[in-house]
Design a protein that fits this description.
The protein is about 65% helix and about 10% strand. Bound molecules: adenosine-5'-diphosphate (ADP) and magnesium ion.
Length: about 625
């Protein structure tokens, strides 16, 4: 059983070969010429670096012959110049190759980042409610750089270093096969070191990610603009600083422990490497004394030995080290790309003549309680339904299910007889608009803030009789003081990019306008006027009732006065529907609605009077 799970996990994980193929295909697709030239230059660099040893041998041999008198000085000089020129050529080649590779890597990084963002948009929204997923996405984003780094290092090893060592191996072998064996043995500690590092850093990434996410969040609570005001007012800096430091310390300690462990193993391995180094020198010396290799070859190898061991150390410590250190993070990137997406039929056109919820229950991920529990409700096209109830009674959750953003955990929610679980998200969201309780304040222009809900509206329906930016803003009662938004609808909002910030109420009106602007057959308003004063709220609802005639509307409100514009009022309590009826019907019953209504009437006298007068 365990073995089968392990096998399954291995199957799902992206291997190094798969990563290299993926990135190479991406690079070949987006920048084929630069990519091919860069690959060729990379191989060339490896071969040329190794070929330097031949020029060295040639030079040492010619000097030896000159000393022995069998050669002229000019011949020795010529081989010296050839050796130098080839060295310069190799250096230039290496620099150009590195530059090109850097360029290709940056292009690839851009594209793999884009793939991740596209994937994040296709993921089922419910998973954003799951802490484990937030860790997952955090890990995946750090994985972008890791993927590039892993593939870069693998390519350098596979192309530059492999060509270099193959060439050197051939050279050693042609001199004395034993030399190749000695040299081969010195690879062993480096290989073991790489395996240890891979194992330990892989484990570290999985343990450390939750701490990183926490300290990054507390850092945000301390320093970001969003949190600054409240944090300062509550004098919460000290507390956040403590939490930040605690998590950062744990993170650093975990890292430190792993690094210490790895370094201890590596120190032992380095001694082994040294044995190989000294062994090769002794072998060479022996062969030279025996007259089996010439002085030129001995000198060439001797002078290249440092470079070779340096490169080996570089390959296994830096390059393989970088691969193993980043491999876990890179795999997280691919694990994210492989996350299940919501599937379903795409070619479904939903008119929303009837929406039926049958015994629908809903549970948030990692939550023991049901947010909705056995909901039965039918909504007909054109109806206006108000949903009322105490905080936490499940109103917002119900609206998320009605939009199709979330699917029932149990029971069925059908639209025109089709289960939402069987329809692709795009088809579900088409023709639906919403103003969310936690609406967004986009740091963009007024116009963009409104049109973002339906960017293709003008292209799709040039003669659309629906709302324009202007009319949507007007219906949402968005007025601005003259002189404040100097560029009208093109004025930038929010301080982040030098725009004007608005009050909570003004932002909320913009969010309402955004909801109204989108072409829709059904609109959901989840406490859209919480930041707007009751009298103006009444005005907005009155206008809303006018424009929503013939369309289905679901309004969540905690001010019962506003619920009166609805055809039916749904009363929720503890995740259940406890009553349904018109305002008058519900008032006559001795139920939750009546209790809430009179409790509010005491506090919102003007509100109730205002409604009563209309
Ligand atoms: P309302 O909109 O009526 O205030 P909600 O639909 O927001 O109620 O919440 C219903 C229940 O679901 C509450 O008990 C709340 O604690 C829980 N809940 C809401 N959002 C989440 C979430 N993201 N994860 C876990 N539980 C949640
Ligand atoms: Mg709510």
């Amino acid at each position: 059983m365990k073995a089968a799970t392990k096998e399954k996990r291995r199957e799902k994980q992206q291997g190094l070969y798969g990563m290299i193929c993926h990135i190479l295909i991406l690079e070949l697709k987006h920048c084929p010429v630069i990519c091919i030239v860069s690959l060729l230059l990379t191989i060339g660099t490896g071969v040329c670096t190794a070929a330097n040893v031949l020029f060295k041998q040639n030079f040492y041999d010619s000097v030896e012959s000159m000393v022995k008198g069998s050669n002229t000085l000019s011949f020795a000089l010529a081989s010296g110049i050839a050796m130098t020129l080839f060295l310069v050529f190799t250096l230039v080649l290496q620099t150009v190759s590195e530059l090109m590779q850097e360029n290709v890597s940056r292009i690839a990084e851009g594209h793999i980042g884009r793939l991740l963002n596209e994937k994040a948009c296709r993921i089922d929204p419910i998973v954003y409610e799951d802490n484990r997923f937030l860790d997952h996405i955090n890990k995946a984003y750090t994985g972008i750089e890791a993927v590039v780094s892993v593939v870069d290092s693998a390519l350098v090893i596979g192309l530059v270093e492999l060509s270099y060592f193959l060439f050197m191996g051939w050279y050693f072998f042609s001199l004395k096969p034993m030399l190749l064996l000695m040299f081969g043995i010195s690879f062993l500690p480096a290989v073991i070191g790489a395996a240890v590092r891979r194992n330990m850093y892989g484990k570290l990434e999985n343990h450390a990610a939750p701490y990183r996410r926490k300290y990054e969040y507390f850092e945000k609570c301390l320093c970001s603009r969003e949190y600054a005001k409240e944090t300062r007012l509550w004098r919460g800096e000290g507390y956040f600083k403590k939490l930040y430091e605690k998590n950062l310390d744990t993170y650093t300690q975990l890292q430190w422990k792993t690094t210490m462990g790895v370094e201890r193993v590596e120190l032992a391995l380095r001694f082994l490497l040294l044995t190989g180094y000294v062994g090769t020198i002794i072998c060479m010396f022996y062969y030279m004394v025996q007259g089996e290799i010439g002085i030129g070859a001995f000198a060439a190898i001797f002078s290249s030995l440092d470079q070779m061991f340096g490169r080996m150390e570089n390959v296994f410590h830096l390059r393989v080290g970088s691969i193993t250190q980043n491999f876990g993070a890179a795999q997280n990137y691919y694990a994210f790309l492989k996350l299940k997406e919501r599937e379903g039929k795409e070619n479904v056109s939903l008119d929303r003549k009837i929406i039926e919820l049958k015994n629908v229950s809903f549970q948030y991920p990692n939550s023991a309680d049901f947010a909705l529990d056995g909901i039965d409700l039918t909504i007909h096209k054109g109806e206006t339904i108000a949903v009322v109830g105490a905080n936490g009674s499940g109103k917002s959750t119900l609206t998320r299910l009605l939009t199709g953003l979330y699917l029932p955990t149990a029971g069925t929610l059908t639209i025109d007889g089709v289960e939402t679980a069987k329809v692709a998200p795009e088809a579900l969201y088409r023709n639906v608009s919403a103003v969310f309780q936690r609406y967004q304040s986009y740091k963009m222009t007024v116009s963009e803030n409104v049109t973002i809900s339906d960017m293709e509206k003008e292209m799709r329906e040039p003669r659309d009789k629906g709302e324009t930016v202007e009319s949507a803003l007007e219906k949402a009662s968005f007025y601005y003081e003259s002189g404040k938004l100097t560029e009208g609808f093109e004025s930038m909002l929010g301080k982040d990019f030098g725009g004007t910030d608005l009050s909570g109420g003004q932002w909320q009106r913009i969010a309402i306008a955004r909801g109204l602007y989108r072409t829709h057959g059904m609109i959901i308003l989840d406490e859209p006027t919480a930041a707007i004063d009751p009298l103006e709220e009444a005005d907005i609802y009155r206008r809303f009732a006018e424009i929503s005639s013939g369309k289905t509307a679901v309004i969540v409100t905690h001010r019962l006065g506003s619920a009166q514009i609805a055809d039916r009022i749904v009363v929720m309590d503890g995740g259940r529907i406890v009553d349904i009826g018109t305002h008058e019907e519900l008032l006559q019953r001795d139920g939750k609605y009546r209790e809430m209504y009179y409790a509010q009437a005491k506090w919102y006298v003007s509100d109730c009077v205002a409604f009563g007068q209309r």
